[in-house]
Amino acid sequence: MKRLNVKKMRALAILPIMAAASLTAAGCVPKPRGPVPPPPMSQPAPAAVPMPPIAPAPQNWMDIPATPGDWGYRATPGGSQALFGAEGTEAQFMLQCTRAAGQIALVRIHEAAGPVPMRILTETQDRVLTATPDGGDLPTVSAQLPARDPLLDAMAISKGRFAVEVTGMQTLYLPSWPEVSRVIEDCR
After folding, report:
1. CB proximity list for 151: less than 8 A, separation 6 or greater
2. Is the pLDDT confidence value at 141 over 60?
3. Rounded CA gap, 134 and 81, in Å?
4. What DSSP string runs through 14-27?
């Protein structure tokens, strides 16, 4: 029994210490003196002016937006043509099949005094051709390719687009629509 009494005595001895600690802790919290005023109103920050998005520079020509326009197809007495341009304007580019010669002309509307480089870019091939001025009412330059030239096949299946660069002219980024393939097949 003595043991039990010792435990009780220890517990009773600790009670005054705990009570004093509680009162001391309670005394540290200040009593409210009235309603707490709201924090001062700050001026709203000026609205941020949204910046227009900046498109990242394309890593290659296939990322550049396509030239606006559509392809059209027409049969000609000696073959066929696929013409690319915006509606209501002259064609900017043309593929022209001359069946008897087994040739396809790549034609760009462009005035030139002499031969100029014409570069064709496709997914699988890039080639620089020599385009010569054509005599006619509309100033054009053209490069001739045999109908079975692999560059024509590359143009027809080039991830949906190919590009035409002619010195002194804006580059054309053209879709590989069925009209391109049709003119190529007409000459084969």
Report:
1. 120, 122, 125, 127, 145
2. yes
3. 16
4. HHHHHHHHHHHHHH
pLDDT score, position 45:
54
* Geometric angle at alpha carbon 137, from 134 and 138, rounded to 5°: 65
For 26, the token pair is: 């309670």
User: For the chain, where are the alpha helices, taking DSSP H only?
Assistant: 2-27, 150-157, 178-186
* Domains by residue range for the chain, with CATH: 62-186 (2.60.40)
Q: What is the pTM of this model?
A: 0.67
Cα-Cα-Cα-Cα dihedral sign, residues 10, 12, 16, 22: positive
Q: What is the per-residue pLDDT across 6-53, written as a single tens digit (0 to 9) for each?
A: 455 555 455 455 555 454 555 555 555 656 566 666 565 555 545 445
> Residue 84's CB: how many other CB atoms inside 10 A?
21
Token pair listed for 10: 């220890």
**CB-CB contact of 63 with 161 (8 Å):** no
